[in-house]
Records
---
Amino acid sequence: MKVFRPNFGACALCVLLTLCGNALGQELSIIVQSTTSTANSGLYDHLLPTFQDKSGVQVNVVAVGTGQAVRNAKNCDGDVLLVHSKATEEHFVASGHGLKRSDLMYNDFVIVGPLADPADVRGTADAVSALQRIARAGGVFVSRGDDSGTHKKELALWRETGIDPTEASGDWYRETGSGMGATLNTAIGMNAYAMTDRATWISFKNKGDFEIAVEGDDALFNQYGVTMINPERCPNVNAEASQAFIDWLLSDEGQAAIASYRIGGQQLFFPNATTSDIMG
């Protein structure tokens, strides 16, 4: 069981920011460049009111695919990056665009499909084998195709299969270039398979007769991270307010708030900030 440690520094900073903002008659605000899954799942609606009430910092979320979020952050369009492609995030920091990246929470990816299950993949916990079966059966697979974190993970799994699905683009492999919700709607309309993060699937309203076909593979692990955009590279970054937000997310209170978010009794995200992250 994870033991959280309170971050008194974050609490003190939040109080300081509130007092300063009120004294100056100004509204403190930050922009979070975020993956769509955290926004579409309703997580921010659950988290942000508590942080904003405590800190006086208004958090504005730009929800796009991870690739676009990183590009926006590199262009100094924002203060904080919260996405789910660890290698991309680490490169973002190593190249000087961001400060320390911290693990924040995780869930997993799943492959969903129609009840008819034409590729006979339901019940398998081997994602690579399932994709191979889908390709061999010519079962339609709908991909986001948008350089998002989900798309990056999907392509990594296809590389493990030894199959290049883009060679079948427009045939059994369809790329939407869209977000997760639109991609799921397309897959359902085409009676096709798709990969999604579990949080988006739980919160998705238009499931029809679709269900999770493939889950439980360690390769489907989905880690989220949070990083401040480097204020030395981007002078517009509100470093104090951004650090207050990050510290709160990594603190006992923030981690507990993440864990408490449920839909229909199902937990969508599992906090996993480390002691070193919390203590800065």
---
Amino acid sequence: MEAKEKVSCGWRNNRWFRAAIPALLLHCSIGTVYCWSIFSQEIADYIGFSKGATEWAFSFAIFFLGISAAFLGNVVEKDIHKSSLIASICFALGMAGTGAFIYYGGLHNGSIVALIGIYICYGLIMGIGLGTGYLSPVKTLMLWFNDQKGLATGLAVAGFGAAKAIASPIMQWMLEGLGDGGIYKMFLILACVYFVMMFVGHLLLKKPDTWHEPQSGEKTNSIVSVIKTKPIMNYIAIWLMFYLNITCGLALISQEKAIIKCLGLAASVGIISTISAIFNAGGRLGFSAWADKMKDRNTIYKLIFILSIVFTALVIFTRGIENGAGNILLTGLVIVLIMIVNAGYGGGFSNVPTLLSDHYGMSNISAIHGITLSAWGFAGLTGNQLASWIVNSSANATVGYQNVLYVTVALYIVSLLLSVIFVKPTKTK
């Protein structure tokens, strides 16, 4: 009897079962939002709208991810079970609703009701699920893995990045195998699958018994007062660094497939996209685990920005995108840039909660992290659209992709200056 009780207590208080596995279940589900490019053209064709019109659904999803994280950070702080349940319901409901409106759009081609319904379901409802689902396991992971915070958060956030690599071939197979109407059937099936995954994660997720969460009635510091414990420019710089890194990442990643085709590698688009997704996930895990060994976690951001500046500048000076077709060296240089940007984009995500905890402590980390994720929301509206505007305003697409790099290298330089000048080293990690 005693042995059984010990086994039971062991798993109930095991950091892998109570933090790492549920975090992966949640993040591997919501991370499939980045599979949008796999089926965006199919949605547009099925409901009778242009691809540009349907693209706003993805932008809205990222925007509401950031906004919901900012406004619901306190809910996550107080009750991870409530927040993870909200995430499970909203994400699955949004996905199922998207499938239902795609079905409606197929019956009523060109219907504005179908398009707005997709905006609301994929953008607003799923966006709320994304924001709360992204935040819910992060503080729990840092509490269970107090000695390896970067590795722990990197593991979960890597799940978010790896979700695209895992789900993309499955979605492609479903689109081809489900026959007529496969696009809406896929959404309805996956809504059920992801709800089960996220609900299991919700049931398993638990903070360690040793952590004392402030109870109602206890005096707690407001988020603003916590942020003011450091010079205000310290936090503003972290927010802007995060925002600019995402904006630059999305600007290049959104044009990734087209750039690869310009290099004459159309047949290898799928393979290169999968590899870039692996670099994205690897950057989330690798950069955050590496930061655990550094005295100042901000050093990782300096490294990300320096690498991004160097390789972007090399492609600019060699005009690698314009002259890369048929030239192995230039093609290789552009591919390396894509991988560096993907890794840095992922690393920026996984290091921000631990950087914030180093500067502001653990007490209000979910709420502060949530406010900081608003940068992701705004970048979701600006990154893709900025790149599209530059490309459309250029003489031709190839020149346009090259011009995008001039903007991103400037933004990376601003990010590096913010990191060096305003984000001061912490005395303890």
